[in-house]
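User: I'm writing a short report section on ligand binding and want a predicted complex to refer to. Could you take this sequence and pantoate and write out the structure as tokens? A short remark afterwards would be nice.
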Amino acid sequence: MAQTPTVIGISSEMTNFTQQAKSMGQRVGFVPTMGALHEGHISLVKEARENCDLVVVSIFVNPTQFNDPKDFERYPRTVDNDLALLAANGCDVVFIPETVSEVYPSGYQSFTLPLGNLENVMEGKHRPGHFNGVINVVSRLFEIVEPDDAYFGLKDYQQYLVVNQLIVQKKYPIQLHGRPTSRTGSGLARSSRNTLLSEEERTLAAEIYRILSLTRDQLNILSVEELEEKALAEFREHPEFEVEYFEIADGDTLESLNGKGSPGKNPMAFVALRLGKVRLIDNMFLKN
Ligand code: PAF
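Assistant: Sure. The structure tokens for the complex follow:
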């Protein structure tokens, strides 16, 4: 039976809540989100529910990770619907900071981390400052929630690697879990921003999955350079797509495999494009 989660808006109350649960031997699972929840988020909540005693979800549209102010304004906000979904899927506590200063108290000093290649390629290159915003908010949320386990979707694969670096470098005692991208029947990767697409755009956006799958299926036939060229040519068939990048890169280091002569052990394809007013990203493991 659906049980209404406890909603907490004050950081210190959130910390007290989890500390008390942990003092009783409970394992705390955490799913950080920006709301506008969909099945992808819910699969993270379900995974946390299976592994942990207390499941905490945060909803906070973090202003510091938007390099485009219009994207921040347009970001969908659907709190009532989010709470209903969380109630139906076993979430215990929802942390919705009452004000931005609950996350960034006055005098908060933002920090940077050496992220190496991760901040120079793809999302790091095309969204300057984005990952710095992500590491600051995720570190604040980790410090407020103090989880044992944290769950992230692999659609934002580069973000997942960045959060892994955050955990390693800050020595947070947190187990990071990356969950497969959730897709609609057409293959479109679920994303909160999909609600901003028109019906026609959503249909067209399924091409992204088709082109990624085509790349995967031809890995043993074409070179990395040919695969990239072919994918870009496929995208160009649809003038509605404005491709920012399509890259085949190593899944562990995100180093481009173009010019390397072999796709190596863990090649992945990554794409970012604009469709109408919306920026979409997706990726695919090419060998498994
Ligand atoms: O992936 C997201 O929704 C956000 O980047 C996150 C991790 C909640 C930080 O604001």
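A remark for your report: The longest strand covers residues 241-250. Strands lie at 6-8, 28-33, 54-59, 93-95, 149-153, 175-179, 241-250, 267-275, 278-285.
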